[in-house]
Each structure stands twice: as C-alpha cells, then as structure tokens.
Write the structure tokens for this entry.
Amino acid sequence: MIEDATPQPVPEPVAPKPEHQIPTVLPAVQVAEATKPVSPIADRVFEAMIKTIADSVYAKPTAAERNAFLRELAEMAESEPERPAEAQPESPVSPAVPPSAPVPAPVLAPVIEAVPIAPPPPPSVLWKSKPEPDPFAVTFKALAEPKPAETAEADEESGELALSLLEMMSMGAASGLPQERALAADTLLRILPRIPVKQLLAVVERVAIMETPPALLVAKLIRDPRSEVVAPLLERCMHITDQDLITAANEADAGKRRMIARRRVISPVLADRLIALGDPSVVLTLVRNPGAAFSHDAFYVLGEVASEHHAILAPLVTRPDLPPPVAFELFWFVPPELRRYILSRFLTDSETLNKILRITLATGGGDIPPADTRFPPRETIEAALSLVTEFRLDEGAQVLAEAAGISRDTALRIFADREGEPMAVILKALGYPRGQLSEAMLNLGSGENAIIRPGRVIEELQNVFDSLSFNKARILLTYWDWYVRQSGPYAPRN
C-alpha cells in the first residue's frame, strides 16, 4: 500500500484553560496576586512596571508643569465649540503604562482587564461658563454706601446758588459787610429745601468749620431727619448753643443723641439732659467721651444706671473724674478685676488720713478705743462666723455689726455678696489673723449654707486681704455704711 505523500495540516496547540478566571474588577491585593509573574525575568519586569506607574501617578508636578497644563486647558476651551451637556464625546482609552516601560502583552492583559476605567469628565468643566451675577453684591453695596433721601423739589441750580452764597458768607468780616452776610444766610435758608443732597452735604461740611455760622441756619440744619446731613454739625460744629442741642436731643432719634454724645466738648447741662433721656446706648457713648463734663449729681445717677446696665461699669469706673463715693458704691457691681482697680486707685495710706479717719469714727458715735485695743476680741469674730456658717444670718450680722461699729443692714449686705471681697474687707478692719483667713473663707464657701459661691479662688481673696491696711479697710467700710444709712455724700439732698 502506497502512503499518501500529501502533508497533513498540523493542529495548532490549544492553550490550557485557566481554572479560575480573574473577574473584571478585583481589589488591588487580589489583582497583584493573580497577575504576579512566575519567572524571575517577568518578576523584574512586573516590578519595573509597578514602579513606573507609581512614579507617574504620585509624582508632584512642578509650577511650570501646572501652568502648562492650565494653558492647554484654556486653549482647548477656546477651540472647542459649545455643545449640550448630555452629549459626551467618547474618549479613547489611554494606555495604563507609559511607552517607556516595555512590558510583555501577556503580563499587561489581565491588569488592564481588571482595572476599571473612570469615565471622562463632563465637557462643562473645560468649557466657558456664563458669568452669573452675585445676588448679595447689590445688597452689600447698598449697606456699605447708603444714599440719603432726596427731596422732591431739589434742583441742581439751587445747589450751585447755595455754594455761591456760602462762599460769600465765608469771606470774613474784612471782605464784606454784616448786612451782606446776613442777607446771604437768609437767602440760603430760603432755598435750603431745594438743595440736592450732594450739594447739601458740601454746605453742611463748610458750615461745620465756620468761625461764626448763622445761628438760624444751624438750628434749621440740625433738625434735618437725615443722619448724613446732621452728623457733621452735631459732632464737630463747636458754635451750636446748648439750647439747640437739647432741642435736637429731645427728638425721638437715638442716632442724633449718640452724635451729640460724641462731641469734643459737652457741658454739664447738656450731659444731664442726655442722661435724663434714659437711653443706655447714649449714656454709654457719653461716658466713653473724655470731653464730657458731668455735674456732681450726674455721677450718682450714672452709678444707678451702670448698676442696671453693666456695659457702662468699666468706662465709668475708669473715668479720671469719678468721685470716690461713687466708685465705692460701684464696687458691689463690678467684676473682681475692677474691684482690685478700685482698691488700688481710691484707697491710700498717710498719717493725715489716719487722723481724719479717727475723727470720722469719733463723729460716727462713741469714742475711739486706744490703738492696742481697737480690735474686738477674737472670740466675738469667731462666734459671728459660726452663726454665718449655720446660716443664722440675722444673728451673725448683729454680732458683726456691733463689733465693727456699722449698721446691721451693712453687715447683711456684706453677707449677700457671693464673691467674698467685702467679707475680706470687714475681717481686715476687725483685725482678723492673716494665717486663718483661708480656713475661714473655705468654711464660708462650703456646705449647703455657703455665702461665698462655689469655685471661688481663695488665693484671690487672700491677696485682697493682704493688699489692704487697717485704714484702707476701715475707710471702705465707712463709705459702705454711709450708703446704707443714706448719710454723708449719699444723703438724698446732699
């Protein structure tokens, strides 16, 4: 049998089918384990590929590269035509590995297949967007630059005439007769309602700095309801009478009152009227003004207002013209920092003060005991403190008042203060030992019947006690007792 010499086709080798096929998306650890090559050469190629990818992804671009990238985006945005947002162009799949890293295709195929490809950004990111107006821009501009209300009969010609008349009035006595200046002022007063706001503001600024402005014109201008118009006159014009200012203050306009309270010089009569109006914001502005002068009675009224509105306390206590009796009464309402300020500013020691204090105590009732026996027995003070810790305040106040020579109501007022400084003052005046003060204060601030607030720093009370001498503590205690008795500087008709 003759064999056929025709060559038979050789079948192609069939690649073995893997037992487990890598899914489309796997975690990074599983992808690395599944695609890790087995040969040393492939292992080195794989590591080089991973390093190249990491360098390309995590490398920080330089400033020049960022600028070049932004310029490229701008050029693309200029050249691209506008298209609807729904139509998204198909972007070709960029290779996962840069061409600089030669990696065999059988090694890269499972990696490219496993890593998901992020969709391209929407075209609106690169295209120009139409500018939208800021809805808050107009509001903020209106708040920053309020426009005064314009009068209905205003005209530009009247404004120009007003400025011309003002020039004639400002030339001085050497350049014109008094009758001429008076006629110019009366004419300006007549056309005042027809002056536009822009020219009116210029007129007001000039009138505010004139040496002798027309009184009738000034009185008319300060009654204008627009704050922009009256502010230069009320704050800076020094030739307005107190009567005109009081008339303007009587209007129900808190803004005008605060402008008057900011004047460089305020007479006591005007200050008394502003205080009597009862507006706390006006009083605060007035107290902060170093050019305001107050009468003797005004300080006591200010002390009563400050005791109700605590924002006025600090400016009032730090005024250089504050009388000591008012400061000693404000002691009960200020915080501990201002209490130390009052003690250091208004209390001093001197031999003359010691003599005056002895006379004061002698006139208060009874003779002053000798210097070595001026303090009551220690047992009396301890008995009074024991009654206070048991919350028997009436009995403790009576014992302490007799020992200190003060009224019982003054002692009760000291017990009612939760900060503890008044208690340190009276113990200093009674000659209480310094080493036992901390223990006494701890007893008064512990338990259900504590008269000193919990958490009060005892070291601060110890410092107050140490900073006081007997004379200082006795003076302060005397003023407190005078206030309760309504005598001395606190008499109603003083």
